[in-house]
Design goal:
7-stranded mixed beta sheet, 4-stranded antiparallel beta sheet, elongated
Length: 119
């Protein structure tokens, strides 16, 4: 079994900061690309950060405000979010390509953590 568990969400005022964490556990040979997505009520899930080959990439909506990093030894990924805006309010999900053997990888999702930006 493989699990991804997010933590660190909560209520923050506009302009504030939050740090999300995602930890992978279970029968894992190695972790491939990892990403953060978010989904606001009534909207489609959207990518907010992805680390492929160690290099993070961001959409324009969060570039300069969000920083994604990972610690492969700890099987963890982080999302540092600064200058938060009300439009950042969403459930944030961790996604990872998990290899349970050297050849075959599958995508896994966490259960999500709520981020609410409001005064």
């Amino acid at each position: 079994q493989v699990q991804l568990v997010e933590s660190g969400g909560g209520l923050v005022q506009p302009g504030g900061s939050l740090r999300l964490s995602c930890v992978a556990s279970g029968s894992i040979f190695r972790l491939g690309p990892m990403s953060w997505y978010r989904q606001a009520p009534g909207k489609q899930r959207e990518l907010v950060a992805a680390i492929v080959g160690g290099t993070p990439n961001y959409p324009d909506s969060v570039k300069g405000r969000f920083t994604c990093s990972r610690d492969n030894a700890k099987r963890m990924m982080y999302l540092e979010m600064n200058s938060l805006k009300p439009e950042d309010t969403a459930v944030y999900y961790c996604n990872a390509r998990v290899y349970r053997n050297p050849l075959d990888g599958s995508d896994y999702w966490g259960q999500g953590t709520q981020v609410t930006v409001s005064s």
